[in-house]
Amino acid sequence: MRGLNFDIAHFLAGTLVLLSFMQLYQDRLTALLHIFALHALVLALSVGWQAYVQDAPHLYVTAAIALVFKAIVIPVVLRRIIVRLGIHREIETVGGIGLTMLAGIGLVALSMVVILRVTGGADPFAREDLAFALAVILLGLLMMVSRRNAVSQVIGFMSLENGLVLAATGAKGMPLVVEISVAFSILIAFIVIGIFLFRIRERFDTVDVGALDRFRGDRA
Amino acid sequence: MNVANHAGAITAVLLALAAAGVPLARAARGPFIFYLLSALVAVAAAASGAFALWKGGISVVSLPIGLAETGVSLRLDALSATFIVIVNVAIALSSLYALGYGREEKEPARVLPFYALFVLGMNLVLVADDAFSFLVAWEFMSLSSWALVVVKHREEENRRAGALYLVMAFIGALALIFAFGLMAAGGGNYLFDAMRGHALAPIEAAVVLLLAIVGAGSKSGLVPLHAWLPPAHAAAPSHVSALMSGVMTKVAVYGFIRIVFDLMGAPAPWWAMIVLALAGITTVLGVLYAMMQHDLKRLLAYHTVENIGIIYIGLGLALAFKAHGFTRAAALAATAAIFHVFNHSVFKSLLFFGAGAVQNASGTRDLEDLGGLIHRMPLTAFTFLVGCVAISALPPLNGFVSEWLTFQAILQSPDLPEWGLKFLVPAVGALLALSAALAAACFVKAFGITFLGRPRTRAAREAEETDRFSLAAMFVLAALCFAAGTFSGVFIDALAPAVGQIAGERLPVQLSQPWLTLVPVAEGRSSYNGLLVLLFITFNGFFTAFVIHALASKKVRRGPAWDCGFPDPSPATQYTASSFAQPIRRVFGTLVFRARDTVEMPPPGSMRAARFDAGIHDLIWDALYAPAIGSVAHAAEKLNRLQFLTIRRYLSLVFLALILLLLVFALWL
How far apart are CA B531 and CA B397, in angstroms? Predict the structure, then answer.
């Protein structure tokens, strides 16, 4: 089983982790968006490869969903939102890139330790995939908590979801229903968040979530 | 009788009654019909239990409902059957009492459904044979009784009592869950049968014992977990107070016996030491607290604490003897404990009924506002007096017999090989003797201040005798007190199967002794004949009365008018409940309650009245409960900030929690 199949799967999943890292230090929204589109594209490739390797044609559907929605529709829509909000040139203060990156490295190490230990006897395909997927999920979460801008939080959430899909497709025998429902719920979440962005913008003239806290009279 | 039929019928009827409770509460005769039906159910359940006891044998059934793998297992053995009879006799009489008492209820819809559920919960605890159904039934009992405690929820005091009760009930249930969890971990699953088959390691046994004491002990009111009991029992309607004090605490005792004697396997001597030490303290503190009370129902509730202590002394002795293989002595101690369970449920129900009648008639339960009720309510006064004599453990009534048996068991203790127990048991015996004397003093106070003397308020002066249903219930209970005191052999023989089950041996058949004599150990050591004592007391009483009336009263005597101790005609100058308690407060109070009496005299020339303040502290509350409540409040205050975080901080919290769990996982595995 080890051979080219494994190497390519490994390579694609590793690329996803790498792209997650790149997202962490992008302080410009448009650049971040591009990286995210690339992230989704690599995810689609990875899922497609899994479909080929596992000989599971329904995974092609998942790959297509990832490609169409995540790599094309969502980035395009998000880009339009950014442009309409007039924040495409804004530079976000990420705050301590070095620290964030160190935390990210720690998270990847943690996910390796956890998954590789737990799945001792499992298929190496699934093992590596799960470890990378957990890393992508944790990095997405890290992105969500380290950013202040609502748009970049949305992107963090999306890349977290990419990690989920990676995990789901890495395991053999995952029925299509699960993937479709996950993709669908993400779409719904995206729509809701998009609407929220505009509402926030209307009210507060900014998508910095710190404004919400100020509005609540909070001692953020 | 098959346990499935027994439990199924009770469950079906009581659930139907609970559902019918709300519509019935609205109808004019609804509560009457409701209580009549619940009395009939209880009578039927008691009969079914008695039949099972008479027939002997164990009936087990496993129903395919509830949790997968475990299901619901029920079991009816001698122990359950004995408790079913004890519990349901009290429930039946309580329902009979409520036929009259329930009419006074302002909001019957708040009482009826929960009353049925409460009765159901107690009955199901007694037949449960796996941890899940036991705990579900136990919680049914706790929650429905909580709803009954807060029936009069508009009074601040009752709400506080309810809140405290709820918290203690949750802590107790949590302890039981852990106890069962530990036993199930060894036995393989949550069936009691699996737990029986598995012996616990000493450390596990220690933890399970402590958890059982916290779980079942808090429900039955063992010091220092008793704090919820007096306020809760005082707050509920009187027939429910009688059930909570007389019956629910017994169901908790059953839970303790089931866990410690049945499920945990062979006992070790040090279990007995823990139980005995706690029980001795409980006995004395319960009665001392009771002495300080001037709320009639609280006073009775504190006496429940005392009597629970006596029951646990019996159980602790049974554990000690069983651990050393003295099964005959263990049987004696267990008989004493279970007989006291029955006796206490009888006379405590009787006393609570009396207190309820007094409260209904006069509108108060404060002793300082009562007095002279024997003229207005002679029948209630008579039955209450019987209850007082019984609970004070005076012959020839039932309380004496079970306490006497407990003392007989204590006298067996020199046979025990362990020095710890050799010293502890006589000390506990001394505590028991002390508490018996104090209990007598306390009930002289309760009866004397309530029923004797002159009425202290207008309400007490105009009180009316209570209704016939309440009186009927009280007279039946009083008759039971006499019967169990005089014909104790019958009762002890009836308890023998249950005793045999928990102690491994039963007492010799008492009915074979001539003239209803009780010979628990051997003829040469001790024996008691209730009938003889009754006859002696009756004869002596009548003879003395006759002599005095015939020889002394008829003479015409002249002398200076004696003011009968009341130089001032106001009834307020009578001896009060607090003055009655004062000597005992002086003797024990300074140590146990840190009691302080301060007299403040006005300076010469001042017209101000002098002031006398008597204050007592509940040291257990101060040392145990107040810090716990304080720290919870403090933590709540600190954690309150978490309600006002920003979205990002919430996300960070979730993130950190996830990382922490993964780290634990990574390091631990």
Answer: 10
Which among A114, A145, A216 has the least Cβ separation from residue B662? A114
What's the rounded Cα separation, in Å, for the pair A84 and B499? 85
Contact B655 A111 (CB under 8 A): no
CB contact under 8 A, A107 and B659: yes
The Cα–Cα gap between B438 and B393 comes to 11
Tell me the per-residue pLDDT of B4-63, one tens digit each, with 9 for 90 and over: 788 888 888 888 888 888 888 888 888 888 899 999 999 999 999 999 888 888 888 888
DSSP assigned state of B511: T
User: Residues B206, B268: contact at Cβ < 8 Å?
Assistant: no
Q: Which of B647, B663, B669 sits opposite A110 (nearest CB)?
A: B663
Name the residue with tokens 């590789």: A116
Q: % helix / strand / coil in chain A, to the nearest 5? A: 80, 0, 20
- DSSP letters for B524-579: TT--B-HHHHHHHHHHHHHHHHHHIIIIIITS----PPP-TT-SS--GGGSPPHHH
User: And the tokens for B324?
Assistant: 């050393």
Beta bridge partners of B74: B61, B128
Task: Return the number of other C-beta atoms located less than 10 Å from residue A130's C-beta.
Answer: 23
**Predicted complex ipTM:** 0.82
Burial class (CB in 10 A: 0-12, 13-18, 19+), A119: middle
Best mutation target, B645, B649, B655, to test chain A (most A CBs within 10 A)? B655
Sequence ranges of the domains in chain A: 4-215
CA–CA distance, A166 with A16 (Å, rounded to integer): 9
Going by C-alpha positions, the residue among B221, B286, B305 that lies closest to residue B256 is: B221
Cα distances (angstroms) measured from residue B101 to each of B35, B94, B104, B106: 10, 10, 6, 11
Alpha carbons B35 and B29: distance in angstroms, whole number:
10
Residues 6+ apart with CB under 8 A from B296: B355, B358, B359, B365, B366, B367, B370, B446, B450
Closest CA to B86 of B46, B137, B51: B46
| Predicted pLDDT of residue A218 | 47
Please report which helix (H) or strand (E) contains residue B363, including its range.
none
User: What are B413-452's pLDDT values in tens digits?
Assistant: 888 888 888 889 999 999 999 999 999 999 999 999 999 8
Q: Which parts of B324-418 fold into alpha helices (H)? A: 327-362, 373-376, 378-391, 398-411
Q: At what angle do helices B398-411 and B378-391 cross, to 10 degrees?
A: 0
Cα B53 from chain centroid? Answer: 24
Task: Kindly report whether the peptide bond that precedes residue B514 is cis, defined as omega within 30 degrees of 0.
Answer: no
The parts of chain B modelled with pLDDT lower than 70 are 1, 68, 187, 522-524, 553, 555, 559-569, 669
| SS3 assignment for A71-84 | HHHHHHHHHHHHHH
The alpha-carbon gap from A57 to the nearest alpha carbon of chain B, in Å, equals 34
Residue A214 C-alpha, separation from nearest chain B C-alpha, in angstroms: 10
- Dig out the tokens for A59 from the structure: 């995974």
Please give the Cα distance from B338 to B488 (Å, whole number).
Answer: 13
Torsional sign, CA A99, A102, A108, A111: negative
Cα dihedral sign, B355-B433-B228-B157: positive
Query: Does an H or E element contain B265, and which?
Result: none
Give residue B648's pLDDT.
Answer: 75
At B308 the pLDDT is: 94
- pLDDT at position B601 is 85
Beta strand B72-76 with B59-63: parallel, antiparallel or unpaired?
antiparallel
Q: Is B668 on the interface with A (CB under 8 A)?
A: no
Q: In the predicted model, is pLDDT for residue A219 greater than 60?
A: no
Q: How far out from the chain centre does Cα B351 lie?
A: 12
Distance between CA atoms of residues A29 and A34, nearest Å: 9
